[in-house]
From TrEMBL:
UniProt cross-references to InterPro entries, sorted A to Z: Mitochondrial_18_kDa_protein
BP terms from Gene Ontology: mitochondrial fission
Family (UniProt): Belongs to the MTFP1 family.
Gene: MTFP1
Lineage: Eukaryota, Metazoa, Chordata, Craniata, Vertebrata
PANTHER family: MITOCHONDRIAL FISSION PROCESS PROTEIN 1
A Pfam family matched in the record: MTP18
Tree of life domain: Eukaryota
Protein name: Mitochondrial fission process protein 1
Cellular component, GO annotation: mitochondrion
Amino acid sequence: MGSHDGQSPPPPLPPADLYRDTWVRYLGYANEVGESFRAIVPVSLVWASYGVATAYVTADAIDKGKKAAATKSCEGGQTTRAAVAVIDTFIWQALASVVIPGFTINRLCAASLYLMGSMTRWPLSVRKWATTVVGLSAIPIIIKPIDRSVDFLMDSSLRKLYSTEEKPSSSF
């Protein structure tokens, strides 16, 4: 069936990906938020934020494995496709959502707290809150460069080992 202008309607959009297209995606940033608050909350809360982010990474990897296993393809077996999807997604997400941004925010906050301590006369509580603001403010800035860097790293290394022509869709 065509529309009034003689063209056919656009193809339907694929269903939303729970782990990429909804609020669930933000669970992957839990550890960056935890690191931002490290100066003012118990360290157990920071570690709990890593637990949330790791659970997100694991759930996304399992989801991508199930989706890969359900696809029909003449390349590779169903189990191989699923395993590649799980491994690729887990490694990509672990690096891009947990390890690299967590380290980056941790070091940024530590440096800002140190610098404020040596360059200002602000009370410690003010410096700690300012450090938290610095960390939270950096999160949206670091996401895309880290994602692109992890894509480059994976494309230049691990993904060259995959026997399929099709690159797993693990990046955002």
